[in-house]
Every structure is written in C-alpha cells, then in structure tokens.
From TrEMBL:
One Pfam family hit: NETI
Protein name per Swiss-Prot or TrEMBL: NETI motif-containing protein
Lineage of the organism: Bacteria, Bacillati, Bacillota, Bacilli, Bacillales
Amino acid sequence: MTTKPKKQKFIVEDNETIDDCLDRMRQEGYFPVRRMEQPIFKEEIRDNIVEHVPCGRMIVFEGKLL
C-alpha cells in the first residue's frame, strides 16, 4: 500500500485553466494552501548582447493532503 505525500505541487498546464488545476487537486485529495508564480524568460540577442525577455509565467499551487 502506497501513501500519498502530505504536500504536493501542482503546475497549471498550458491547456488548462486555474479552476481546472484546482479541480484536479481536489480529485487527488489535496486542497490549495499556497499559490506561486514564476516568470518565464527567453533569451534574445540584440546588438551582440544577450537579453532575458519575459515571455510568460508559470503558476504553481502547493496542496496539502485532506
């Protein structure tokens, strides 16, 4: 018998909404306790200088086991 971890991170995927991710958490037996947003950068070269340009964000929820 395997036990679930007490805490688990859930990433909002590209093809789902925040509500879809929260529903997925509930189906797996977790409730959200923390929301984190991390920027996503891409490298662009301008005038032989590498610049990091923001191109999106990644939303991560931390869930606690019910």
